[in-house]
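ok so dumb question maybe but i'm new to this and my supervisor (M.) told me to 'just get the structure for SCP2 sterol-binding domain-containing protein' and walked off. so i did the thing. is this what she meant?? sequence i used:
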Amino acid sequence: MANRVLAKRQPDLVRLEGRRVVIEVSDLGKSLYWMIRRGRIAPAPVGAVDLRIAGSAKDLCRLALRLDDPDTLFFARRLVLEGETSIGLHFKNILDSVDLDWFAPIRYLPAPLGPRIRQTIDRAIRITQADRRLHDILDRALQP
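this is what came out, is it supposed to look like this??
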């Protein structure tokens, strides 16, 4: 899914070719090792990394959902970056330039089904203000 979201940014990822990153979810004791290979995110074997990003599950979720700025989490010592932080900064800039389209999978449905589903969802969100409500619910649920 990440590679699909970042497909348009593939030329920017080339600069990170071969770089290894680990994201550690400190309170769950879980780690995700990945690297950039041929302009795409790929799993990496456990071992030495160029950048370590660590935080609690809540803080990493808040970061992923863009509820908190990475700098805010870092300076509040809720997010740890170790190693070549320039890699993290470059990747952050790539992510900041991406407009997340949660409806992208609908585009793969054949016409007229895909466009009709998208219109129906857009209308329902507009009428119910579900996007704002969901943001508020997630913000409250993921409070530090």
